[in-house]
Amino acid sequence: MEMKTVTIRLRADELDRVRRRAEAQGKSLQAHMHDTLLAESIEADRKLRKSVREGVERYAEAFAETDLENDRRLARMREAARGMEREPGEW
What we know:
The chain has two helices and no strands. With about 90 residues, it is an all-alpha fold. Helix 1 crosses helix 2.
């Protein structure tokens, strides 16, 4: 897993709130922030995967619908072409 450095800017009151939450969980501030960022990263990844999956499903549905329309149009064109068949030597 690739490690990245993250800079977080918090106001003093926000920092105190985060520090109290970390202490309540028996963790250091750094460990608490790491766990929080990891959880948020996992959640963001889950949402992204869901969004991509839904997008692919919508694309597949639209493609199938278009493919079916094309098949119908081709069948109509073939049917129309049958009526236009000419005998040899006809113009």
